[in-house]
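Bumping with the actual sequence this time:
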Amino acid sequence: MDPALFKIAIGGIALLVCIGLFFGIGLALAAHRFAVEVNPVVEEVLESLAGAQCGGCGYPGCEGYAIAVVNDPDVPPNLCYPGKEKVAERVAELTGKKMAAMEDMVAVVRCSRVEGRVSHKHEYIGFASCTAANLGFGGPSACSYSCIGLGECAAACPFEAITMVDGFPAVDPDKCVSCGTCVKICPKQVIELMPLKARVFEPCSTRDLGKNVMRVCEVGCISCQKCVKACPAGAVSSEDGLIRIDHQKCLDYGPDCVEICVQKCPRHIFRYFEGRQVVSRQQAPLKMAS
């Protein structure tokens, strides 16, 4: 090789090495200068969580909740629903917070589209998503408040607790951890969380007038208010045409309270509820828990 070319090549390599060293030292100094100190308690809390990354706590993943529960005194230690009470106790211990009571919940589908033989007002052809179908005139169902049935909730459930049975979601309470993912994703808002110890269940989310409900559904709530007036515990109310049940009031009153609303409903939409039984609208009215 020409000596002159050799010297040029060596010089180029040396220059590149110097530039690399310069930027490497600069990056090292910057990393040291702007390093964010990690709170060891956050790391301990993160390791204690279930690691499901379900978002049921309301934060962006487990790390988001770990940071919040350690640094914010108003964030309770019992928001990791998959971890249940054991994890809540550990988080409370690590953060020095008072352990709040945890209530076992389960997702329920407040719709009786299959049982009520609700017809379709049109056939939906498009992307297989409840959200997408809902954009097309509120979905294909004749009841504008009913479950669309394309399985978006089942696909989103991080614990595979929901399966689709003949186009309708069935919840397995033994797998459900009440993370609320299905509740948030349902465009019709027919899924909600309910205490496992609840005694009664009203599987209908319609807000339509009674005559309109009777025209499209054989079992839907007609807002007659008989359950509201009859409940001795004051546990049943109507909010914007939707029946709501205060399950704690119902439980505090006793089992006799349940019998009254179930018997008074002319559409037989009120059902005895057993939290550990898979809820399916194709089944006969649910049996009361012992």
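The tokens above came from a reply further down the thread. Strands lie at 105-109, 162-164, 169-171, 191-195, 200-201, 236-239, 242-245, 271-272.
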